[in-house]
């Protein structure tokens, strides 16, 4: 096999696992997952069991992006906590093995929902899955970061100030054309950052239903995936990310709930989901939610701009989908401006 982001040198992987993974026995087969745009991910199958390998892409990468080492660390730290994650097996930071860093974890044999509509499911299932999504989110934000060894997983200081600065730089580094709405949003967000309120928690950074695996026979979440953007920061960024997705149009592109009769499908309103989260965390309410929502639209615009740039440069995990996603940068920026104006 060619040694690239989209394929694996199976002989090299097999030799590495034989030497470093207790209990591993080949022969080995690999199949790339089509989902995900950042770190190429592969299902590894042996006669006895299945694993998942997640690697950095090849080529020139943005600074601090594709941090598989951080993904490995946070999931390793959460094992045994109330936050469900796959079991981590090993991290290889030696680029000479397959051309980039990678880690290997357990394969989670469960259900994955592409979007919150969960087409074909009963209303009771939809309601239970979304409530479980809410519960796990609250649990993640109540993890004792000192006890699990993650107190230094993110810097001190104002999370949103740091994130707006970081993603503004990332966006500029991958900018392919002028998007007036994005320029305006960057300026407006920078001027509207709330004062710190004392909350400093683990945040996932891309908390969505399609980044979760649920048990085959219940609504129990058995694992949260894709921790690349995780850090120590402000919990409302994760909460707003859920609401952001729901405000997208339904279908394979938007994967949202805009215009959907949620009550008829057993799905909560934005306000009900937020209220339930606050109840679980013992919070009275959340002021200025529009800022947090605007921030999520801004960050997603920055992410998909990076995906587009990688597609143009030939380094995208799924080039065709990457080019389609890239067209949504202006829309995300405009949604962000609207959310900020609503407060």
TrEMBL record:
SUPFAM superfamilies: Protein kinase-like (PK-like) (SSF56112). Residues 30-253 form the Aminoglycoside phosphotransferase domain. This is Aminoglycoside phosphotransferase. InterPro entries: ACAD10-like, ACAD10_11_N, Aminoglycoside_PTrfase, Kinase-like_dom_sf. It comes from the Bacteria. PANTHER family: AMINOGLYCOSIDE PHOSPHOTRANSFERASE DOMAIN-CONTAINING PROTEIN, HYDROLASE, PUTATIVE (AFU_ORTHOLOGUE AFUA_1G12880)-RELATED.
């Amino acid at each position: 096999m060619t040694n690239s982001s989209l394929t694996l040198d199976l002989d090299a992987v097999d030799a590495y696992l034989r030497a470093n993974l207790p209990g591993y026995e080949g022969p080995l087969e690999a199949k790339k997952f089509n989902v995900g745009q950042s770190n190429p991910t592969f299902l590894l199958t042996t006669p006895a069991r299945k694993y998942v390998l997640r690697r950095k892409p090849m080529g020139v990468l943005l600074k601090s992006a594709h941090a598989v080492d951080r993904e490995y660390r946070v999931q390793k730290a959460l094992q045994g906590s109330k936050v469900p994650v796959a079991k981590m097996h090993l991290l290889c930071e030696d680029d000479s093995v397959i051309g980039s860093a990678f880690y290997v974890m357990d394969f989670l044999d469960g259900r994955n929902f592409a979007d919150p509509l969960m087409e074909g499911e009963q209303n009771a299932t939809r309601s239970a899955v979304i409530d479980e999504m809410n519960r796990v989110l609250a649990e993640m934000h109540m993890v004792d970061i000192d006890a699990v060894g993650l107190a230094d997983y993110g810097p001190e200081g104002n999370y949103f100030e740091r994130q707006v600065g970081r993603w503004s730089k990332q966006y500029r580094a991958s900018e392919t054309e002028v998007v007036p709405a994005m320029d305006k949003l960057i300026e407006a967000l920078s001027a509207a950052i709330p004062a710190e309120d004392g909350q400093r928690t683990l945040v996932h950074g891309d908390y969505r239903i399609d980044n979760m695996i649920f048990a085959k026979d219940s609504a129990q979440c058995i694992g949260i995936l894709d921790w690349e953007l995780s850090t120590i920061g402000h919990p409302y960024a994760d909460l707003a990310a859920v609401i952001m997705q729901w405000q997208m149009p339904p279908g394979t592109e938007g994967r949202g709930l805009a215009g959907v009769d949620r009550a008829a499908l057993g799905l909560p309103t934005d306000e009900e989901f937020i209220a339930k989260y606050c109840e679980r965390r013992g919070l009275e309410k959340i002021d200025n939610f529009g800022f947090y929502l605007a921030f999520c639209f801004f960050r997603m615009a920055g992410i998909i701009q990076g995906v587009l740039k990688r597609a143009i440069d030939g380094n995208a995990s799924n080039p065709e989908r990457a080019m389609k996603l890239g067209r949504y940068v202006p829309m995300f920026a405009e949604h962000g401006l609207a959310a900020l104006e609503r407060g």
